[in-house]
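Notebook entry, structure prediction.
Reason for the run: the old model in the group folder had no record of what sequence produced it. Starting over properly, with the input documented here first.
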Amino acid sequence: MQVGLLVPQGWKGEYDGWDPADAWARTIELARQAEEVGFESIWVFDHFHTVPVPTDEITFESFSVLAALAMATRRVRLGHMVVCTGFRNPAHTAKLASTLDVISGGRFELGIGAGWKKDEWEAYGYGFPPIGERMDAFGDDLEVITRMLAPGRATYEGSHAHVRDAINEPKGIQKPRIPIIVGGNGEVRTAGYAARFADELNFVFLDAAELRERMASVRQRVADEGRDPATFRFSMYLRDEDVRRAGQARVDVIGSLAESGLDRIVAFPTRWSPTAEAQEAFAADVRAAGVELSEAVAV
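New structure, fully documented this time:
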């Protein structure tokens, strides 16, 4: 099982009261330290202001952050937990992803979802359509994005998104394309979109027993799409409260998830204390759970 970390960007209040320049310097420092310790990947949220209550505190924009982190690191993979497709034209999202893959030397993974945080949608002028409409739009967005990342020009006519003879060059470095991760726990439409369009499904806050059941169901849906289920991956973003309980409680959680068959977990150990010590302590618990980290690299 691989292990990735979210790095601080302010969304959960970890930079409340900080000077923006100091906060950004700390984000770079922790991304580099995560790579040095041996974590497989680093991730950011795609949100515009703080949670659970919108405040006037720092929240750095996700694509800008990842472009900078791509230049500040060498080995670690990079991605979103997850892009809200409703915040950007999907063809533009594909263009951003392709450019990031080149900047990073082929280390970018495109995590995407339908979005959920109503106050952000409304504050930034997107409105907030009902969930059914958002999921319809998500399907059209995936149609556009996968076409934009495929060879040649892209054409698609949907109810919520369309492209006509659209050029996206470069496509990125990775072959056959940039990996796509669909995020969410939905058992019908989210799982269906993942099985059809994605390379990985990212769950949120499930226990090991439920994970096994969900993964079996999704593998069948992948097979029904005519794809090989053995090549499909599963990941999960861990509950913050599970990550906060350092020591044996955290070791037990990580160990149970490793035994569940997950390919990757993503955690946010600097949520309460954006320090190298917090990441190092999490790394120690990962190793204590019997999970190997990547070979450390100096950056």
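Summary: The chain has one domain: 2-288.
The old model has been moved to the deprecated folder.
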